[in-house]
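quick one if you have a minute, typing this from the bus. below you get a single protein, a line of residues and a line of whole numbers that encode the local backbone shape. could you go over both lines and see whether the tokens make sense for that sequence. anything you notice is useful, everything is just below.
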Amino acid sequence: MSFFKKLKEKMSHQTNAVTEKFKEGLSKTRNNFSEKVNDLVSRYRKVDEDFFEELEEILIGADVGFDTVMELVDELKKEVKRKNIQDPKEVQAVISEKLIAIYQQDGNESMSSINVQKDGLTVILFVGVNGVGKTTTIGKLAHFYKSEGKKVLMAAGDTFRAGAIEQLEVWGERVGVDVIKQVAGSDPAAVMYDAIHAAKSRQADILLCDTAGRLQNKVNLMNELEKVKRVIEREVPGAPHEVLLVLDATTGQNALVQAKTFKEATNVSGIVLTKLDGTAKGGIVLAIRNELKIPVKLVGLGEKMDDLQSFDAEKYVYGLFSNLVEEADE
């Protein structure tokens, strides 16, 4: 059975609504990337060095990242040689397989799931620069966990940016979740202390914690995040259970630079990639995974409340090549 047919069969057994969200959310990247690959394979009669050079350019243009592209093309060349592939059209399926392999390289398919505790309080810390959609992500995730029947609280730990506390409160009202806050300019670690004690006294299941996102003074940011983490660790042993770095997919390689900075500042356990539907360069997902070894756990695929989705490598590849998957062996 062909790769695309297998993927088509697998997608048909999964939630159609979620599969469709990936298809719709990745339409800009698909139109940019998949159509260029289609054009490439239609112009070449054989798979040669020129073919691979053009493919490299397409992958780099999709923000897959230079190092990742070089590795991917090397792997493709080996596979083409091993399978004695002559027809460029057959390379499309191999590209798809390799994209999934990049993401699942450590063999742990559950790495994309959020680490929620079976018993007691789960503390999730959100980090990231201003303007990436951090507060919106927290609000949408609060809505998701509340709809699952969990008791959720939010902590307004970004006491530095004007309007950040109010923005989180708007989301709190919208989704029916309380926000623990202090006045603007307060010590973020003190806010976390209050929030944890409130969460314990109210027997909350999930505490979602916002933090400041300024990068102008990296030393201050690192010190602040370290202090916040120390307070959380002291009050809830083993917490934070996740440190999620929120990145804006539309910023492309700049998101990768931010990720490296925050990885130095704190122990980032996963990435939330927002506005994936707003970019034609959705290959950044692979660059982050391959170059930083951090899993993308959530992706923003639109404006609606349920458009924040758990990342799934196969659904991602389906979103990139849905036209070929749907045509498979029809």
In short: Strands lie at 122-127, 152-155, 178-180, 206-209, 242-248, 270-274, 296-300, 308-310. The CA atoms of residues 41 and 142 lie 45 Å apart.
